[in-house]
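Re: the request from the purification team.
They wanted to know what the chain is likely to look like in 3D before they choose a buffer screen. I agreed to run a prediction and write the result into the notebook, where they can find it.
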Amino acid sequence: MHDSFDISTIIFAILAIFVLIKLKSVLGTRTGEERPPYDPFKRRSGDESGVQGGTSQGNVIRLPGASPVDANRSAPATAEERWGKIADAEAFPGLDAIGATDSNFDGGAFQNGARSAYELIVTAFARGDRNTLQGLLASDVFDSFGAAISAREAQGETVETTFVSIDRATIADAHLREGTAQITVRFASKLITLTRDRAGAVIDGGTDKIMDVVDVWTFARQVAAKDPNWRLVATEAAH
């Protein structure tokens, strides 16, 4: 009986040691270097906004298309070097004035943003999307666009617009007046647009008609404002 008890005790002890060894091999031991539990709401290192993929300098997130900050990089020596790829010569002095006042101004990034805004505004106007337009237009321009949409709706007409391409977006003029930057862009694009009447019949344009369109739009913003967005303040069709 005594021998049996001793043998059982030894067997259980051996089993306990085996289990402990297996647990250790699976779970490991804590070294103080373990990663903390994943927190999906915690801001990531190098991304102070909580948006993955961003890089931070203070509270500013560098957006795609913006130039990286390089303290050792000197500015291009001439206005032609600074702006010649995106603007007409008439705009060079105004762009220099805007850049001197707003250190964050990037002509290339502005040009890309203007192209996107142009397409967004044209398609939103065709859809009659006042909510989108209101955030992109100055109040008087919004009133004008809204009146045209209302007149179209009263006639029961609908417009369908598709961009084939935006061939050019050239800065034609620029000014800085009393803290307000104004930049005029000449867009050359190809569009397919058609208008349908209340019954759905096409009364203007067509899906097989590509139009060459040249528009001259002016965007503005207060350079000292916290809001970085530019708004459309004037439009005209080039002749």
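For the purification team: The mean pLDDT is 78.
Please add any questions underneath this entry.
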